[in-house]
Amino acid sequence: MINQKYKDRLSKKNVIRRLAAFAHKRGQEIGYENVFDYSLGNPSVATPASYNEAVIDMYKTMDSMSLHGYSPSLGNTHVREVIADSLSRRFHLPYQAKHIFPTSGAAGAIAHAVRAVTAPGDTVLTFAPFFPEYTPYVNDTGAVLKVVPPDIPDFQINFTELERMLDENVSAVLINSPNNPSGAIYTEETLTRLSDFMNRKQKEYGHDIFLISDEPYREIVFDGRKCPYPSAFYDNTLSCYSFSKSMSLPGERIGYIAVNPKATDADILVDIFGQISRGIGHNCPASTSQLGIASVIDQTADLSVYETNMNLLYDALTDIGFEVVRPQGTFYIFPKALEEDAVAFSDKALEYDLILVPADNFGAPGYFRMAYCIDTDKVKRSIPVLRKFAHEVYGK
Description:
The structure is a single chain. By secondary structure, the chain is α/β, with parallel strands linked by helices. The chain has two domains: about 140 residues, Aspartate Aminotransferase, domain 1; about 250 residues, Type I PLP-dependent aspartate aminotransferase-like (Major domain) (Aspartate Aminotransferase, domain 2, 3-Layer(aba) Sandwich), CATH 3.40.640.10. The protein is about 40% helix and about 10% strand. The protein is built from 14 helices and twelve strands. Strands 2-8-7-6-5-3-4 form a seven-stranded mixed beta sheet, with helices on both faces. It has a three-stranded antiparallel beta sheet with strand order 9-12-11. A two-stranded parallel ribbon has the order 1-10.
């Protein structure tokens, strides 16, 4: 018998994917250059040439078995050492290879992290607005995701609601900074307050409460900012990272979990991740992706275009009359819709070939997300269309 849970999901497809499919179909009709598709967070800048050159060199010079043979179940040891060294230099924590577990992107990292620190029936808290796929990521482990309402308008943490919702059943808190979809970065003050609160609750309930930190946008920050590193604030932190955004490598599916060396059972958590892999068929990322990343570990793609696009959109949206908080990072902007129903708002935008994602599934009804990881020329050409839409439909 086919599992009914997955059958039921067929009728509840991800809104982002649905809109992306609409944009693709519309592009076939009128030319994709005429569709202003702000749906998918798919990096739009080139992968660094140094990564491509390193991979080509490996294929030319490395022994076939060394390159294409099975990777160790916990990941290539050299790669783990390189990642640990980079994190130690950048964030001043004593990471070693034993604290690093390569994964298939940040999604694979979260899948392992949640399973390692929860039992079926446990609660995992996250903060709205949040990436909608957190729901299956968490609930499919047997744990239960609960969403703390948003802190509007700044999109930091709603500590009043957190205080109410963090009870003895909570075994993990899942955060995302810089945040998809708001573009907000959790400040040092926010992370200090969160750390103090979670430490207090660990003592009160007599069990660990892990912080699972989803960090794929860590390198995409604006206005000269630095993104505070959550593991520097809270010992029981598992950092889940992906090179998809920083290196424009989403198709390579390469990331890692970094276990805070001060966390409970820090010396065996990576071994536990290996045991989890046996049950979910993970079996670590491709060896080429691991080795390629190790060769360019501290590099990024040229991410400056995202700040250029953000400034163009922020200035235009505020000028039109949208309420919007200036993004501090990522490649998303998160305005308030021009009517209470963001789904209806986004549907009306489709008539103008504007593909905007309503944020109901992100835990923030009334808002919408724009993924501006597109060509700057298209951003510029979309602005008159945004103005026309807002004026003709809403009188702005």
